[in-house]
Amino acid sequence: MKNKNLMSLVQNSQLDPLSTNRSGPCVNLNPEFITGFTDGEGSFIIRVIKSSAYRLGWSIQPIFQIELHKKDENILKLVQNYFGVGSVYSSGTRFSQAYKVTSVKDLVSVIKHFDKYPLISFKLADYLLFKEVVNMIQLKEHLTVEGLEKIVAIKASINRGLTSELKAAFPNTVPVNRPLVENKIIRDPNWVAGFTSAEGCFLVNVFRSSAHKLGSRVQLRFQLTQHTRDEVLMRSLIEYFGCGNVYIRERAVDFIVQKYSDLDSKIIPFFKKYSIIGVKALDFKDFCIIAELIKQNKHLTESGLDQILKIKEGLNTNRL
Asked: What does the alpha-carbon distance between residue 87 and residue 76 come to, in Å, rounded to a whole number?
């Protein structure tokens, strides 16, 4: 343990079950957890910026970044501790923080991780193109006209593509083909824990219902959401958990489990074994309390329903 602050992070984030060291408290997140979390929240960015300091007039800056709400700054510090490089910054808004690795030398550590523990979402294509640019910079190919133009063509195929400024400066750019991401399988439960810590939601809905004595019905829902380009990956969760359904809406795909017996026998036991971290861990804890109240039929009593409503008030975006 490096210091008391990191010990505090572990205690607050309930990290011991995710550690690769089961002999005692440790700040080392499971590597598959890191990959799952990055599949959810990570970004591989290539910046091409005008700069008189370079002969060609452009500088190339590769960035690995994870940006979260400031409530989850602790997660960013734990990721930073895992990689041993990079910094945690205010991302320019009052509500968010970002972990960034910008040094090419430091990015080598990041690349080693993702080569050993590959991403399985379509973000893998961004990573492979990003890695190619980092390799080009190491070989100083970015200092040649041909290298610069190739990097711009690669950037055109990553994330949102080229800015209007870059399109004007490099009008003949033809985006490179994105690497083919074949249907990837979920190979480790820690990936699921990391992905859920990034993208998961534990929701409690209370509906009006004339069929219930108190006039209200309580429904629990576990949900994971991704861009529709990862529909195959999201559908694989149905087989992985043995429950749930997938729903498509515009450019998003949702994996949803709302049958109580599936939540009670499959989803809740899974995440008790493979821990979520950050603020979502608190949501999961409250979700479990409500699930237990339902199991005991306390949601059918006024006092039990009131208790559920009070817990619901502090869930998800309402949590301070």
From this structure: 9
